[in-house]
């Protein structure tokens, strides 16, 4: 590599390192609580404190059928009727940003 390209190479390395650190700084988080015997409310966001409005949050049966397709609202929440079938909640903010919550892990009212 010629000396003319070394400063550019160094700048690119620093920029890439900065992007990597910021990409790791916000892990997905999702919490679901039973409001009552019929309703469940899930709240999604990221570990940096940012919300997740518009992010996909689906309720999926153990047979992999989507029981309740959904997206988080402007408040990063979604409320849905508890399915009669066994299920889990899938918060999907993209590759590497997925959280699964099994029905057994949903907090009681």
From TrEMBL:
Signal sequence range: 1-25
Keyword annotations from UniProtKB, A to Z: Signal
Highest taxon of source: Bacteria
Protein name: Secreted protein
Native species: Pseudomonas migulae
């Amino acid at each position: 590599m010629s000396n003319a390209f070394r400063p550019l190479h160094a700048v690119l390395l620093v920029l890439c390192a900065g992007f990597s650190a910021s990409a790791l700084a916000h892990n997905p988080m999702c919490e679901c609580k039973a409001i009552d015997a019929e309703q469940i409310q899930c709240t999604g966001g990221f570990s940096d404190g940012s919300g997740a409005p518009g992010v996909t949050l689906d309720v999926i049966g153990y047979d992999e059928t989507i029981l309740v397709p959904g997206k988080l609202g402007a408040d990063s929440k979604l409320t849905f009727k508890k399915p009669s079938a066994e299920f889990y909640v899938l918060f999907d903010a993209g590759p590497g940003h997925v959280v699964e919550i099994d029905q057994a892990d949903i907090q009681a009212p």
